[in-house]
Amino acid sequence: MxxxxxxxxxxxxxxxxxYYAWVTLLLVLAVIGISSYIKQLEVGLIATGMTxxxxxxxxxxxxxxxxxxxxxxxLLIIPAYLYDFGPIKDIVIVxxxxxxxxxxxxxxxxxxxxxxxxxxxHLLPGLxxxxxxxxxxxxxIVVLNGxxxxxxxxxxxxxxxxxxxxxxxxRFLLPFILLSIPWAVSIHTVTAFIYNGLAARPFWNASxxxxxxxxxxxxxxxxxxxxxxxxxxxxxxxxxxxEALHKIAEMICIAMAINxxxxxxxxxxxLYSDTHxxxxxxxxxxxxxxxxxxxxxxxxxxxxxxVAFLIFLVPFTRxxxxxxxxxxxxxxxxxxxxxxxxxxxPGFIPAPLGEVWEYAPTTLEIMVSLGIWAIGLLILTxxxxxxxxxxxxEFTKYSSKAAGLASERA
Amino acid sequence: MRYDKSxxxxxxxGDRPYDNxxxxxxxxGKNELPDRRTFLAGVASVLGMLAVSSCSWQEFVQNxxxxxxxxxIDQTVERLKKEYRxxxxxxxxxxxxxxxxxxxxGYALDIQxxxxxxxxxxxxxxxxxxxxxxxxxxxxxLQFKDGDMDFEHSTIYYDPQEVPxxxxxxxxxxxQHCANPPCTKVCPVxxxxxxxxxxxVVDYNWCIGCRYCMAACxxxxxxxxxxxxxxxxxxINPVTHYLGNRPRMKNVVEKCTFCIQRVRVGKYPACVExxxxxxxxxxxxxxxxSEISKIIRNKRVFRLKSELNTQPKFYYFFAT
Lengths: 410, 320
Hints:
The complex is a heterodimer of chains A (410) and B (320). Chain A is mainly α and 410 residues long.
């Protein structure tokens, strides 16, 4: 154990100049984020752009997007463990590590949004009061933490075995893997239900919300995974087959088709029935009372999603890495807008008594958010720095004593 | 650790689900673990970062009002009074009166009579110690054009020389004290609930500031202290109730409580008292002879957004 820690710390502290540059960048952003957050604690949430009209904003937008990223690991787990698809089984662990980082970012975003983080113990059952089964926010805390435990357990066990150069007992692991599949669906469903259950907000109070959440999550998460895998295989000895990436790309294509279909269904219902429920959509896509801060953003998202769908639909562009990566970037940005600000803000506009009161994040909010992203990516980087060499067999109980730094990768 | 009153033989009899957690007689010899207070005090001292929120450790470990023992409530009230005196230089009353037996409060507003003068808005601010900077007002008076009751066409920003203006009518909106409130069920920590007399209240010291209740309210009945509330010392109302108009802190939610500090001692809410045209009526829904019961029985009444099934105890009516 001791030699593991020593070796792991050595591995974290050593690397090529690019690694140092990357970690330094993340650390700087993290420090800026934390100091901005301290400022927010001092003055209150007035430091953000939120008001009693638009009482949730950028933080919860990022939170919602990242829950989707975390849930998307299931798209690797199903082919890997259930269908025993070799190329993905070899790499599924990276998806699970991404899920852990995304979950931790989710928790940081919710905490940043809380007015009284000093009272967070009120949420602990026993000590405080977790309002179950009534509060969907209570349920979300349960499912997110449960998913975090599952995602620590499954890869943790696999890595422990790999480090000790022992075979993995999949019969032990299978129940947890099976459980993690519906659980992944549940985290995004419950997150959707947080918004979905509010009759006061017609924009969210539509049954299509949870299915759309899942469809869009299964676009953005895997798109992030495709990019991550390419970075990983470029900089480490961890092998990722093209086949695996193309399989994921196919799944994105299906998910995006469903996402766009559901969007169309939503548009039809609102436009044709033409009731006041249309107002938030009108605000989002056209603007209202001369106010329309989100209009350029949502059309960008729409265009990106459609273009990305076409890229993923045509085999020629889907199988070329230049266009594939372009598609991934478009999807990530598109869904980040759509499931972030594009989802949260119109829920509040117009307000329940009809006012159109706009929202824009303040610089402080953006700094805090960047800080959280930086901390999340730092967690991801450090985890991968230790786990990938274990997976490739460079860093094991036996090698770590002898090899030392010689096994360090370029 | 037990918080369930029903399974607690030592539980105090009273209106609220008190528990005896923290009283020495209950814990001695039964529990070798450190009790919640000691444990949390330890946590509090470790987490020095909490100093940023400038709260004392007593405030930090303070329990939910519904779970406090009589003794804990008294201690908390004493602490709050001291705190408020230091801050505002006045002696405060921090009432903890429970509901009056056999009472369920309801409200009715005559929109034919309302002249849109907003005196209720300001009386409410003064009575209930809302922050003057940033401004919080519980009552919002909507102006509608005659012949239209569409919220999206209404405005609160009307400013003529004289009200009422020809061709317009007015509809004040505040917390509707729903019998089926969407706001209380979403709260992840039960910091807000309906009292037995029907008043929807917030425990400002238990609220974690997630603002889920604000998203859930279809009436804009809830307001958030985005910054430390500022109230000039000469404007502060020192006669308060724990669940009502006592001074709030930053980053918590607050709302109309039908002036709980007044109605539980037999007075009318400030908005009812100040209304120059008598458009506002308040009383006990359980008493068939009360004015409110008679109005609901005999007048043409409606409730806002009744399609949402929130079942407000706040009625609008036409007197003639």
